[in-house]
Design a protein that fits this description.
The complex is a heterodimer of chains A (287) and B (244). Chain A has helices at 34-43, 190-198, 264-271; strands at residues 2-6, 10-14, 52-56, 61-64, 68-76, 80-81, 84-85, 92-94, 99-101, 107-115, 145-146, 176-181, 200-207, 211-214, 228-229, 234-237, 243-246, 253-254, 258-262, 278-283. Chain A is mostly beta strands and 287 residues long. Chain A has 2 domains: 2-167, no CATH class; 174-283, Cyclophilin-like (Cyclophilin, Beta Barrel), CATH 2.40.100.10. In chain A, a hairpin with a 3-residue loop joins strand 13 and strand 14 (211-214). Chain A is elongated, with a radius of gyration of 20 Å. The relative contact order of chain A is 0.18. Chain B is an alpha+beta fold and 244 residues long. Chain B has 2 domains: 7-80, Gyrase A, domain 2, CATH 3.30.1360; 91-243, Cyclophilin, CATH 2.40.100.10. Chain B contains 5 helices and 14 strands. A 5-stranded mixed sheet of chain B has the order 7-6-13-5-14. The relative contact order of chain B is 0.16. Classes of the chains: A mainly beta (287), B alpha+beta (244). Chain A binds chain B through residues 19-27, 124-125, 133-135, 180-183, 225-229, 231, 233-234, 251-254, 261-264, 287, and chain B through 9-13, 15, 17, 19, 22-24, 48-58, 60, 67-68, 135-142, 144, 181, 183, 198, 200-201, 205-206, 209-210.
Chain lengths: 287, 244
């Protein structure tokens, strides 16, 4: 078990997402930066879909109540185990009573804590991903206890995974977000299309697991569509000219023109951006 | 050949958007349902998930095994294949109990004065129509209903309420709907249903699905309480009528 002494700013349990219920209006949810989250599970030889803790901006204070191994990946948040600094992308053994804390955010905005075998929070509609209204809570709160499978710490098999992992994940500095044309891209003139692709966008303070809104008013318009499906990574163009890039907790349908579609890697890159960060969209051509 | 000229567009790296003529119509919705039934009947393991609403169908496929054109061609031949129409032509009509008492219908008086129609008339216009479920979205279990009387068309509130209670029946623009859980919302609240439309504990979380129809049945405050308690105990069954 792990107990939450302090929940941090926005901490939740996520797996790869909730699939098969879009037609009931249920969002995908799941790990925002699936590259970093995936690394965390891989470093522990976990299953790809095992649930991890997604930690945003200000980390929690946690106490382990059983022995296991853990790994932190993604954003660097000055994590400490029993007040000793620890590294991301490195496996650590822990025992009952060990305390994990987080400090200053150095880069990115989301980090992932994985334990051997994954966190065993409730499964609702085939997923452990927190989403308010589907799971009984949307965020971890003080005194929550989450189960994991007790793991015997054995010095002889306590080997770090072979090879090195570049902890300076290059994408924290990336400003290029690769996109496909969206289904309404062709509704816009070639000048408007060029404009949409040439603007350097700024992440606004309206950014969360549902979507990232950009500051710039790129192309004002009056086009609307009959409500139609959307996905995580769908880029909607509001009449004001601003872009909203839908993220993992986004609703399943929308009525704004869909001008671009991000792929999973682009969603992961964007998921590490925060207010004020710049991005530029680059069209992926050919299919 | 299928009934409509469809367009197939790539939607990112592993999805395909199929569009019918962009019109809200029961015929198109039914055509989508038939197509979806064929897809589900074929049970193609590379088709992972689908989502349809109004005149669009999104299909998420396994892009590791298939390219866009392969899936597109599979779908085109499936749409045109008349041999495997297994979908039942029947429609399910659900009777949704709604209490329009002012206790729940907190915007009825406001709507009445703005629209210059009596509260009784608003209620009778609202419950005299069979609404078509064109899809779900906005919130888990939220039904997009078509068929609201033009006389009840009324713009959304300028500032949304922070909390609209679960079960609220409301009007926003030319739509009417039921809030499956409490949430912020900008629609005008005219009543409340005691039944839960969305239950995450069930494998099929909503018994009502796109393509079904619903009719609102007016109930009193007393009946509301009885149904609410019966539903809580699991002894309430939603009335359904199957029409061919």
């Amino acid at each position: 078990m792990i107990k939450v002494l302090h929940p941090g700013f926005y901490t939740s349990i996520q797996d790869m997402g909730r699939f098969g219920y879009r037609n009931f209006g249920v969002p995908t949810s799941g790990i925002m930066d699936s590259i970093s989250g995936g690394f965390a599970n891989a470093l522990l030889n976990n299953h790809k879909n095992d649930a991890v803790m997604e930690i945003t901006m200000i980390g929690p204070k946690l106490v382990f109540m059983a022995s296991t191994y853990f790994v932190i990946t993604g954003a660097e948040m000055s994590a400490e185990l029993n007040k000793n600094p620890i590294l991301n992308y490195k496996r650590y053994p822990v025992k009952n009573g060990d305390i994990l804390t987080f400090g200053n955010l150095k880069n990115g905005i989301r980090c992932y804590l994985a334990v051997s075998g994954g966190f065993q929070s409730e499964i609702i509609l085939k997923s452990r991903s927190f989403y308010a209204g589907i799971t009984s809570q949307g965020l971890l709160k003080k005194n929550d206890v989450i189960f994991f499978k007790h793991q015997v710490i054995n010095q002889t098999n306590d080997q770090q995974p072979k090879g090195t992992i570049n902890t300076k994940i290059p994408f924290y500095d990336a400003i290029i977000i690769e996109v496909f044309k969206g289904s309404e891209f062709e509704l816009f003139s070639s000048e408007e299309q060029k404009k949409l692709l040439s603007v350097i966008y700024t992440v606004s303070n309206d950014n969360n697991r549902m979507g990232y809104r950009m500051e710039e008013e790129a192309v004002k318009h009056t086009k609307s569509i009959i409500t139609s499906p959307v996905l995580p990574g769908t880029v909607q163009l509001l009449p004001s000219g601003k872009l909203i890039i839908l993220m993992k907790d986004a609703q399943t349908t929308g009525g704004y023109p869909r001008v671009f579609q991000l792929n999973e890697k682009s969603i992961a890159i964007l998921a590490q951006k925060r207010m004020g960060d710049k991005i530029k969209l680059k069209l992926i051509t050919g299919l | 050949m299928g009934n409509y000229q469809l367009t197939y567009k790539p939607f990112g790296e592993s999805a395909i958007l199929i569009e019918w003529p962009q019109i809200i119509s029961k015929e198109i919705l039914n055509d989508i349902r038939v197509f979806v039934a064929k897809i589900e009947y074929k049970n193609n393991e590379n088709i992972l998930e689908l989502n349809f609403i109004y005149c669009s169908l999104l299909i998420i496929y396994n892009s590791k095994n298939n390219c866009f054109n392969e899936i597109k061609n599979t779908l085109i031949s499936l749409y045109d294949n008349e041999m495997i129409v297994t979908v039942k032509s029947e429609k399910t009509l659900w009777h949704i109990p709604v209490c329009y008492d002012e206790k729940f219908g907190i915007d009825l008086i406001y709507l009445s004065s703005e629209k210059k129609i009596t509260v009784e008339k608003i209620i009778s216009l609202h419950r005299s129509v069979d609404y078509t479920v064109y899809g779900m979205g906005f919130l888990p279990g939220f039904l997009y209903l078509g068929g609201l009387s033009d006389k009840l068309n009324f713009p959304r509130r300028n500032s949304p309420r922070l909390i609209v209670p679960k079960g609220a029946v409301a009007i926003g623009g030319n739509h009417t709907g039921i809030y499956p859980q409490s949430s912020p919302g900008g629609w005008h609240i005219i009543g409340n249903t005691p039944i839960s439309l969305f239950d995450v504990k069930k494998e099929t979380p909503s018994v009502i699905t796109p393509g079904d129809e619903i009719r609102f049945k007016e109930i009193s405050k007393e009946e509301y309480e009885v149904i609410r308690i019966a539903q809580k105990q699991g002894s309430y069954e939603l009335k359904r009528v199957i029409n061919d």
